[in-house]
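Q: For a teaching handout, I want to show students what a protein-ligand complex looks like in token form. Below are the inputs, and the small molecule is cytidine-5'-monophosphate. Please produce the holo structure.
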Amino acid sequence: MTIEDAKKRLCLALDVDRLSDAVRLVERLRDRVTLFKIGFQLFTKEGPEAVQAVRRLGGRVFLDLKYHDIPNTVASAAREAVNMGVYMFNVHASGGSEMMRAAVEAAASQSQKNNTPMPVILGVTVLTSLNYKMLEEELCVSNTLSNHVTHLAKLAKDSGLDGVVASPREITAIRERCGRSFTILTPGIRPPWINDTDDQKRTATPAEAIRLGADYIVVGRPILKADDPAAAADKILRDMAYYNVPLRI
Ligand code: C5P
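A: Here is the structure, written as tokens, with cytidine-5'-monophosphate included.
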């Protein structure tokens, strides 16, 4: 992919406490990054104003609130996500097909009503903080971790979701099961020039993640903690463009 393509596929995690910090980052990076992830931390503190602030600065928003509730409640939340004008949001695939379908239907009808684009809806499969032992002993899932991830990814696809959030090591199996046009967004990215992986264990470089088939990569601390976040973003964009991988979606 070209650098311009990479700019559309790099998602910056706005993992900061204050709206003013988020705004400063968006202003500084919006020439390099077009998609900004707002998660629990910023949304719990600042609410929908955080979404509006990023949008006013021309950024697209991935609202990472991982909805997981009864279908009616998730449908209501999906409508509000559409009303906020988010580009992308996510739900837990383990909420089941009825819940995921309710989210898709509610988002579609609200987008139609508002005459706004339908957001991209992604499923969260198995949190990367869980390992196979916890899956088996605590959650009584007898499947292997990889099979459970691909099972939930397929369930998400069959329920009308556009794609999933997945760790770099899951990309290949999900691609095989869910096809080329299924969106895969990958966190756990660590550029090759960073030695500290923080709390991320199963990491990949930007270039590796793209080569493996990620459509979007989410990067937080390697940019947020850099002395020069813009220079860090530039290096990540160049790494993403390293292999000549064409855009799928
Ligand atoms: O700072 P870092 O690049 O590790 O940030 C990764 C971002 O992706 C964080 O916002 C984190 O919540 C999110 N994430 C993750 N691993 C997952 C799912 C989401 O790190 N499996």
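A: Two things your students might notice: The two ends are 12 Å apart (CA to CA). The chain has twelve helices and eight strands.
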